[in-house]
Write a structure and sequence with these properties.
Length: 164
């Protein structure tokens, strides 16, 4: 009976102490997790070596599932698209040199266009006087995927562009 009580006591104390640290660990053939203290700062360092399984990410509107040994300690959420009344056409897509932005409604205010690369860095910003259509020069950009956001007053339009 004393042995059972001792084992239960150790499990309870171990579980309580384990909740104190929010350290991730690795699962694999090799790798480690350790706590490093530098001055007043405390860091957790983890590594994995030789992962043989498939790694990747699967997402839908509500959830993101990650596969692999190293998992981020944060919750990743998708930001829903905001529906606006800005009637906009973008062509051609994929684009080689110039992309045309055309509006179906009358535009009476300046048009702010911001082009982002796939990493979210702003690569081009233009302000255009009120017009029904205009072109953006993308000839100087590398091939890849870009996000174009257009704002007219409080209306915003966003689309993905593919540069050849």
């Amino acid at each position: 009976m004393k042995h059972i009580f001792f084992v239960l006591f150790c499990l309870i104390v171990g579980t309580t102490a384990a909740q104190e640290y929010q350290q991730r660990s690795t699962l694999g053939m090799a790798g480690s997790s350790t706590r490093v203290v530098v001055g007043d700062a405390e860091y957790y360092v983890s590594s994995s070596v030789g992962q043989r399984s498939v790694i990747g990410t699967l997402s839908n509107e509500q959830y993101t599932i990650r596969q692999g040994f190293q998992q981020p300690p944060i919750r990743v959420m998708a930001i829903p698209e905001i529906a606006t009344s800005l009637n906009t056409s973008i062509y051609p897509n994929p684009v080689s040199d110039f992309v045309t932005v055309s509006f179906g409604d009358a535009i009476n205010s300046d048009i702010l266009s911001i082009l982002y690369d796939i990493q979210g860095r702003e690569v081009l910003t233009t302000i255009t006087a009120p017009t029904q259509s205009f072109q953006l020069d993308m000839s100087q950009f590398a091939s890849g995927t870009y996000i174009l956001k257009i704002r007219v007053e409080s209306d915003i339009f966003s689309t993905r562009l593919i540069k050849n």
